[in-house]
Amino acid sequence: MNLVRDSLQQAPDPLDHIKINNMAISDLAFELKNAKLEIPEWRHSIFLDENDPDESVESVINYILVGNSINFQFRDYESGEKFRSEYNGQTWTGAFGMWACLKRACDNGIPITNGEYLQSLSQSDVENIFHTSSGPDIPLLNERVKILNQIGEILVNKYDGNFSSVVSGAASYLYHDGNGLLEILNEDFPPYRDCATIATEHGDREIHFLKRSQLAIAVLYGRFHESNKFMIHDPMEFTVFSDYNIPNILRYYDILEYDRSLTEKIDSGEFIEECSQMELELRIATIRAADRLLLKLNEYHEDQITAPQLDWELFQKRDSVDTKPHKSITTNY
Ligand SMILES: Nc1nc2c(c(CN[C@H]3C=C[C@H](O)[C@@H]3O)cn2[C@@H]2O[C@H](COP(=O)(O)O)[C@@H](O)[C@H]2O)c(=O)[nH]1
């Protein structure tokens, strides 16, 4: 049982606005066959380090799972300019800009991973956390406040106020008869849910993308996979994380071919409505194409490459491709 892959089986194939080019998939797989395809451990200064005397595996788990609940939308909707903030003498942009602010809050003793604190966070508290002296404000601030309040309430009511209790109570799997960590995040934490309904010839079908929840678990898997401090025994069940960068990178490599109407919308900077057919097709095609790319890549690799490794390889190219990402206003990515 894989919530994402099983649900995508129900989605239309082929799609109306996007064609997946299998030749281009083979070409990119060949190009990447000797790539390192590492599992990132995310050991930047903007993340907590479990080896610090003041930190622990639990504090890293709490930090990553709180932060990823608001890991979405970092580009100014008009200018496309990325949110950015300073930390440790460096400028961090986009998602890393968000993490820089969260780390700054931790350094200032703000208990942002404590459910009690989160459930009563005010708008001005969050404005202060994400205050930046340069560039655009972080988008969707109010949505971030609501999500953090909701996450805090759930943690207090069910999990002793912190995410490490969620992890310790879950099986060390993504999927495990409802007790896998991904299943629990999806079931117990509505802000982490990431699903939509798509019309098919057999009627409406619910499809799951689980982008932020999979990314959050993949970060912990990457950080601790060489130790027994946090295990995921079914890493092949990850899919790539369908945000606004991965589809654009696949488009750049001609793996995703958009029809004229979708091309015109994206290249003119028009918004594509969240949960519209076009937006859902972008996310469905991203995961379908990336899974096919994984299969091709694994023809060249003895030890099986997992989706987080492919995702990170692709994601790093986001600022060097000359195609434009789509714009949808959403809290899913
Ligand atoms: N597929 C995929 N999507 C990712 C990431 C990361 C990397 N950082 C995470 C890794 C560890 C921490 O958890 C960090 O947050 C962010 N994103 C997504 O991209 C968007 C931000 O893009 P830009 O505006 O250019 O910063 C936004 O939707 C964000 O959710 C990734 O690795 N893969």
TrEMBL record:
UniProt GO BP: tRNA modification
Catalytic activity: queuosine 5'-phosphate + H2O = queuine + D-ribose 5-phosphate
Keywords: Hydrolase
Domain of life: Archaea
Family: Belongs to the QNG1 protein family.
UniProt xrefs under PANTHER family: QUEUOSINE 5'-PHOSPHATE N-GLYCOSYLASE_HYDROLASE, QUEUOSINE 5'-PHOSPHATE N-GLYCOSYLASE_HYDROLASE-RELATED
Name this protein carries in UniProt: Queuosine 5'-phosphate N-glycosylase/hydrolase
Organism: Halogeometricum limi
